[in-house]
Every structure is written in C-alpha cells, then in structure tokens.
Amino acid sequence: MDWLEVEGKVVIVTGGASGIGQSIVEELLAAGVKVANFDLKDNGKEHENLMFVATDVTSKDSVEASVQSVLDTFGTIDAVVNNAGINIPRLLVDANDEKGPFELSEDVFDKVTTINQKGVYIVAQTVGRVLVGKKDGVIINMGSESGLEGSEGQSVYAATKAAVYSYTRSWAKELGKHNVRVVGVAPGIMEETGLRTLAYEEALAYTRGKSVEELRAGYSNTSTIPLGRSGKLTEVADLVLYLVSDRSSYITGVTINVAGGKTRG
C-alpha cells in the first residue's frame, strides 16, 4: 500500500544533481513522483519520470522558462523543493591578513546571498503562482541548523538560511488562504558528500584556526548530537517525501530540524 499516495505528483527540486538534492530526487522517483531537476549541470541520471532542466535560479527569465517547460511536459506542478545553495566560508575580519583571501568581500557576500536568498524567492514566486492558481501545493525551503545557531566562518551562509526561515513563516501566512503550504527543512551534521571540496575545507579550516586534517578529524566527532551519529541524506529525503504528500496537509509555517537532537544546550 502506498500510504503516502504521492505517485504521479509533480515536484521540482532545485540543485538536484548532487548532495542532499540528489538524494531527494532519488527518493521521490522511487515513490513514483515525477521530478524536474533544476540545476546548472546534469549528473547524467536517467529515469522515465525525471526531466533535467538547465536552470539559473538567480535569473527570473531562466526560472520562468524552466517552470513552463515542466508544465508543458508534466501538465502541472504539485510542489517545489528549494534546495540549491552555496557556501563560501569567510571571516568578517581577518586579524592576521586584512583584506586577505579568507576575509569576507562584497563579491562573496553578493554571490552567496544571490543564490541562497534571491534564488529561493524567484523560484518560490514563480512556482507559487502555479500553486495559488490551482489552490493546492507545497513549497519546501531547505534551511540549515546554522541558520538558527550561527556558524563560525560561515556568517553569510548562516544569515541566508535565517532568511529562509523568515521566508517560510511569512509566505505560509500569505499563501495559506490559497491552500498552499510552506515548510522549512533544516539538516544538521550530515554524512559526507562530494560537495566537501578541498577549496571549501581549506577556507573553513582557516576561518576556525585549524588545519584541514584537524577539520576532517572533527567530522567524526558527534559528541554534541544526542543520537550519537551524523545524519544520512536519505533521512532528509524521507522528510521531504512526507511533506510533499497530503499526509502532511496541516503542517505549514515551521522549519523542521533533521539534526539528531543537536542544540547548543
């Protein structure tokens, strides 16, 4: 029995070619959902219910064209997962190297906020028009535990995720009258993906006064997590699948942590 009854639903996933996004795409496809992956590059995955649409989420023209292609192919849209994002670790002030490569610059600030914050608004608005028109659907915004707690060396990334929390609460209030839900998902420490590049690790290690080796050793430290382990990408995808379904029809305006109980307390 398909308890979630999601087979045949149409869902857009931004940034679905790698990391958490890829796991979400695979989970949705396995449940019989028709999926449109909006990303800059295709990962080559093929499935009868999957369409890849090259999309720049920071461009309204690109997003509008991509959404129209989904409507032309699948006929409707039931949900969107705003997952596309970027993280470039930087210090607000580098006491050892003023205006150095690891001190926050306007270019880095603009790039991270444009993708993580503006991109979410453009996609949500474009898809939201479709959902409001049919008076049904859900917008799922991918946040991060850092959006609530802050993160050393990742202030701009954390700030954009805090903005996503506010988007979620505000849009839920605006769109609820049209029977459209808006829900946030906030992963905590997750298992390793291909997104941990050397450049990212070098930058994050520097901002925290560590070597790359020390940073990597910390990945396995789960002492702050009550469940005692890192999260699995599939555990985030499982939640997204549930939120896409009508079984979650009274959940809106909140962000759900997938963090094993981790808090600062």
- What is the CATH topology assignment? Rossmann fold
Class from helix and strand fractions: alpha/beta
Number of helices: 8
Assign the CATH architecture: 3-Layer(aba) Sandwich
End-to-end distance: 41 Å
What's the CATH H-level superfamily name? NAD(P)-binding Rossmann-like Domain
Please bin the fraction of helical residues: 40-55%
Which stretches are low in confidence, meaning pLDDT under 50 for 5 or more residues running?
none
How many structural domains can be distinguished in the coordinates?
1
Mean pLDDT across the residues is: 93
Give the strand tally.
7
Beta-strand residue percentage: 5-15%
Shape: globular
**Sheet with most strands: strand arrangement:** 3-2-1-4-5-6-7
Work out the radius of gyration: 18 Å
In N-to-C order, the SSE pattern is: EHEEHEHEHHEHHHE
> What does the largest sheet look like?
7 strands, parallel
**CATH class, anyone?**
Alpha Beta
Describe the 3D structure.
- This protein has one domain (10-192, 232-256): Rossmann fold.
- The protein contains 8 helices and 7 strands; from the N terminus they run βαββαβαβααβαααβ.
- It has helices spanning 19-30, 60-74, 106-134, 146-149, 155-175, 198-207, 212-218, 233-244; strands at residues 10-14, 34-39, 50-54, 79-82, 137-142, 180-187, 255-258.
- It has a 7-stranded parallel β-sheet with strand order 3-2-1-4-5-6-7, sandwiched between helices.
- Helix 3 links the parallel strand 4 and strand 5.
- It is globular and about 55 Å long.
